[in-house]
Amino acid sequence: MAETAAPGDEAALRAEIVRLNKIVQSLMNRAEREAGTKQSNFGLFQDAVMLEKQVQRRTAELEAALRENERINRDLTDEREEQRVLIKKLEEAHNQLLQSEKLASIGQLAAGVAHEVNNPIGFVNSNLGTLNKYITKLLYLLDLYEAVENEVPSASRERITAFKVEIDLPFLRDDMVDLIGESIEGTARVRRIVQDLRDFSRPGDSEWQAVDIHAGLESTLNVVWNEIKYKADVARDYADLPMVECLPSQLNQVFLNLLVNAAQAIPGRGVITLRTRREGEHVAISVQDTGCGMPPEIRDRIFDPFFTTKPVGQGTGLGLSVTYGIVEKHGGRIEVASELGQGTTFTVRLPVRRAT
C-alpha cells in the first residue's frame, strides 16, 4: 500500500520518480544490447521487464501519494483561508462589541449630562420670562413719565431730552424686547434639544408604547441636526397617522441611521425628504435623499453585517444591519430604491398594532 507523503515531501517524491525512471531506462537499454549480441542471455531481458513492471507499479504508487499530497496541501490552504476570514470577522465583532460598550457608556453619560443641563436651562428660561414681565412694566412706567414730561421744568426737560438722544431710546425700547424674546426662544430650543437627547439616550427600551411617529422623527432630527444642517435642507411631507405601538428608542435609532446615511450620501448640498403615509393597518415612513445613489451590486448588500463603502475607520458596516433587525423585530419591513446619480429612498413599513 502506498505511503502518504507529508506536505513538505512533494519535491522528494518527484525526484524519486525521475530517478526510478532513469534506472528502468538504463536497464532496458542494457537488456536490449545484451539480447542483440547474446541471444542466450534472454533471461536477463525478462528480469529487466519484470523490474520495469515493479518500477511502474512503484511509480504509480508514488504518483498517487503525490496527488494525495497535493490534495492535502489544497485542503490546508483552504483551511488557512477560512481561518483568516474567521479571525477577521472575530476581530471585527470584538471591535464592535467594544464600540457598543463605549456607546452605551456615552449614552448613559449623555443622559446624565442632559439632566444636569436641563436644570440650569430651566431656571434661566424662567428668569428670562420674569425679566420680560419686569421690562414690560418698566416700559409702561416710562410711557407714563413721557406723558407728563411737558410738566417738568425746562432745564430738567432739556437734560432728559439730551439723554434720550444719547442712548437712542426708541432703538433701546425695540431692541430690548427683541433681545429678551430671542433669548427665551433660544433657551426653549436648548431645552427641547436636551430633552430629545435625554429621551434618545435613555436605555429603558424594553417596554412597548403607543407613540407619535412624527414626534419621534422630529426628536431624532434635533439630535442629528448638526450632521444634517451643513449638507441638506429637510422637507416634510407628513400625513395623518395613528399612534403606533413600538419600542420608541429603538425606532428612533432606525430614524437616526437613515438620516445620517442620507446626509452622508449627498456629495455637495441637497434635500432630504421625510414622507409618511398610512397604508391600512400599517404606516410607511420614507427617507429620501438627492445623493449619489447606489449601483445594484452595492444596493443588494447594504443590509449585510460589516458591509460598508466608507473608508476604513469611518464605518462599522452595522448601521443598516441593526436597522433591518429592529424593523424586523417590530414585524415590519424595510425597502430601498436607488438609482446611480439620482438618489436613494429607504421606506420603513410598520404595523400600527404590535405584531404578536
TrEMBL record:
Segments forming a coiled coil: 48-100
Reactions listed under catalytic activity: ATP + protein L-histidine = ADP + protein N-phospho-L-histidine
GO molecular function term, any single one: ATP binding
Domain of life: Bacteria
EC numbers for this chain: 2.7.13.3
Keywords recorded for this protein, A-Z: ATP-binding, Coiled coil, Nucleotide-binding, Phosphoprotein
Domain Histidine kinase: 112-354
A matching Pfam family: HATPase_c
InterPro entries xref list: HATPase_C_sf, HATPase_dom, His_kinase_dom, HisK_dim/P_dom, HisK_dim/P_sf, Sig_transdc_His_kin-like_C
Entry-linked Gene3D superfamilies: 1.10.287.130, Histidine kinase-like ATPase, C-terminal domain (3.30.565.10)
Entry keyword annotation includes ATP-binding: yes
Identification of the protein by name: histidine kinase
Organism: Dechloromonas hankyongensis
